[in-house]
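Quick bug: D-ribitol-5-phosphate phosphatase output formatted oddly.
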Amino acid sequence: MKSKGIKNLLIDLGGVLINLDHQRCMENFKELGFTDVEERLNIQQLHGIFMQQEKGLITSAEFRNGLRDMMGKVVSDNQIDAAWNSLLVDIPKHKLDLLLELRSKYVVYLLSNTNEIHWRYACHNLFPYRTFRVEDYFEKAYLSYEMHMAKPEADIFKAVIEDAGIEPQETLFIDDSELNCKAAQELGISTYTAEAGEDWSHLFKSK
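Here's what came back:
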């Protein structure tokens, strides 16, 4: 990868680093009484209250209240968070090792469409490894809910390029969405579309 002039990596979170279990999440919401969750929650293309949360346009408290309104019943914050976080399974240790290794060769950034509830859960439960914490894996984490914009909008990529001071042609973006990768390509960023749960370490192995 170095031979191609790549100096910076933009890495996605869900599906690329974190293994996801959509079905488990749906089932847990149904158990809470969110009977039409499958119609309202498309993990691949969030909309409505879920996208508002992802862009940080509503608070976590407003998101939970919105879900309670949809369910039409009293459900605790902890119950909602547990069902929502059940989407996130784990980050395989070999990927955490890979991130640490890549940091010695590239400037590594996280670029994720995520929300406050998922991000806090990931920081406390998925990234801690040996003595390492989330801040040890990335130069900086760019999160949709903090930036108030989301992939595949061109503006989020432009904001990262400007804030990080990086050149698009020296940057590789790894994401599990073809749509997101296409948006990055249009700005001159190299991309790799990863399959869900794929071990993409082969990208960095010498031929």
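Actually, after a second look the formatting is fine. The longest helix spans residues 60-71. Closing.
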